[in-house]
Design brief:
This protein is mostly helical. The chain folds into 2 domains: 14-87 and 128-177, 50s Ribosomal Protein L17, Chain: A, CATH 3.90.1030.10; 179-213. The protein is 55% helix and 12% strand. The strands form 2 sheets. It has a 3-stranded antiparallel beta sheet with strand order 1-5-4. The protein has a two-stranded antiparallel sheet with strand order 2-3. Strand 4 (151-159) and strand 5 form a beta hairpin.
Length: 213
């Protein structure tokens, strides 16, 4: 019997599920929407709602100068979400040329005064905005007057190549795009190779049928 089983296991261990959830939420905060399977999107949505609520609490505490409540909410947010830097488009080439140690230092560098003033940290080329900074300062203020329902799941007609899983888009409310841009994204390299094989097989089948006739 399936009593008191509240969450999906996604065929992963607990540690893997938590890491997957953190990575998906970080990408959602960075890009405003993500494209994943509908099962992962439905499982991720309640977690995103809680993170936005905590970010709203931090933002409102700063306005009310309630340091204790803001610090408590910020610690909970960091505990569940962790943090990493968002690489600006202007510095992606610099990031690609970095060593592994400098990349790790760049991703883990805190977003604070150095980011606001544009000063690099130590030997780093730049200091980027972090996910938590964007969530608290950019995403949360958009939903100050909204009591909940910060995200939506949009099922897509496409299926993933390989296991044929149904795909969906998870996005923040207010980050809507046209239906065409969601349903017809740029095909991946794997999808292009699959389409090429199907086209070659159909062409060969048509040629053999023509020769037999």
């Amino acid at each position: 019997m399936r009593h008191r089983v509240a969450h999906r296991k996604l065929n992963r261990t607990k540690e893997h599920r938590l890491a997957l959830r953190r990575n998906l939420v970080q990408n959602l905060v960075e890009h405003g929407q993500i494209r994943t399977t509908i099962t992962k999107a439905k499982d991720l949505r309640p977690f995103v709602e809680k993170m936005v609520t905590l970010a709203k609490r931090v933002h409102l505490s700063a306005k009310k100068k309630d340091t204790a409540a803001g610090l408590r909410a910020r610690r909970q947010l960091h505990k569940h979400l962790s943090d990493r830097s968002i690489i600006p488009a202007a510095h992606r080439a610099d990031y690609a040329n970095m060593s592994d140690a400098n990349r790790e230092a760049t991703l883990r560098s805190a977003s604070g005064r150095r980011y606001r003033t544009g000063e690099p940290k130590g030997r780093l080329t730049f200091t980027g905005e972090t996910v938590m900074h964007r969530l608290i300062e950019v995403v949360a203020p958009k939903f100050i007057d909204r009591p909940g329902g910060y995200t939506r799941v949009i099922p897509l007609p496409d299926r993933r190549v390989g296991d044929h899983s149904q795909l969906a888009v998870l996005q923040f409310v207010g980050s809507e795009q046209s239906a065409g841009s969601l349903a017809k994204p740029k095909p991946s390299a794997r999808k292009r190779r699959t389409n090429a094989r199907y086209a070659a097989a159909a062409k060969a089948l048509k040629a053999s049928a023509k020769s037999e006739s």
